[in-house]
Amino acid sequence: MAKELRQQSGKVLIIDDEKVILDLTSIILKNRGYTVFTAVDAPSGFEIIEASQPELVLLDYMMPDIDGLTALREIKKRFPETYVIMFTGKGSEEIAVELMKAGASDYILKPFNNQDLADRIENVLKIRGFEMKNRELLREKEMLLAEIEAWNLELEARVHEKSEALQKAQAEIVQSEKLATLGYLSAGMAHEIRNPLNSISLFVQLIKSGMDDPEKLEYVDKIVKEIDRIDGILRKLLDASNRPKFEIRDVLIHQVIDNTLEIFSPQIQLHKITVNRDYRNIPPAIKADPSELEQIFTNLFLNSINEMASEGTLGVFLDYDRQYITIRVSDTGTGIPVENVPYVFDPFFTTNSRGTGLGLSVVLRIVKNYKGKIEVEKSDATGTTFCVKLPL
């Protein structure tokens, strides 16, 4: 009883220089449902593979011009997803090993049995199906791993961003608490110190009015100067913590900057400092007290000029967007030491023996009054940049 043919699917290319083999094999495979292509030499076979992408090639070992082994290597190199079964009339183990090393999936000795041929083809195509599926799964695995890695990186970036925002918020709370404490202390200190200071000033003036000795008068003048210096420190202390009287009107930031730079022109010329104004866009007028804004730039410019030796560069950048006016004040000084950056806005923190450490505290208080932001944007050996953002 004849064995029933199992219908298969798939594309098979037969490359053989013997027409009888081509015709016979083609009939056998077509009867089993395969789509069959034929070629009498390797170059023709390569063209068919490129155009039709068959799953399997039946390739003769002995062929003119390009032999079967060379053709096999070329197919595996150019078309790795096309599997190859070799036809060979030489049944030595050496040839078999050589063919398998070159990438053949199987080899069939001529003359072959029809059923054996069909079984071998079916087996190789099954193996190919499993291997293609495995490759697809591996590609999917790699894509999933890449996606997971991307998600992890995004999550880490978000955590880092939120952590930085939290640290910044905590730092701002601490700064606000410091300013509040300073306000409470400075109000009490100013009251307690100014009372005896006024008495000292009055007594010194009385002493001075009845004194003729030039040397003693010089000492009295020095006392008066020191009294004024103490009073100046008290005023700065109050300015750093409490808002004095102010007058709100329309103010153009670039004009305030230019006016403040004009005040510093003697120092700028003396130290041969180059002023680099970079006004990208002139912002519209904002509601503010011009003297308060002038205090911001007075303190920032003073710090920058003091940090620079001769022939430095003072940079002023100005721009705005829908939310903020951005001002950057930069210098080419030696920079703030990294360990000091977190404390530059703290009251009384200074590395300058002649300073009070209240200038940047005043700046911080004014910027906060206008719901703005200030930070040390950059500080290294090439200089320091302060960035101020004031809301429109």
UniProtKB/TrEMBL annotation:
Its EC number is 2.7.13.3. Residues 188-392 form the Histidine kinase domain. Pfam families: HATPase_c, HisKA, Response_reg. It is an enzyme of class 2 (transferase). SMART domains: HATPase_c, HisKA, REC. One of its GO terms (molecular function) is phosphorelay sensor kinase activity. The keyword Phosphoprotein applies. Keywords: Coiled coil, Kinase, Phosphoprotein, Transferase. It catalyses: ATP + protein L-histidine = ADP + protein N-phospho-L-histidine. It comes from the Bacteria. Residues 127-179 form a coiled coil. Residues 11-125 form the Response regulatory domain. The modification 4-aspartylphosphate is found at residue 60. This is histidine kinase. It comes from Geotalea daltonii (strain DSM 22248 / JCM 15807 / FRC-32).
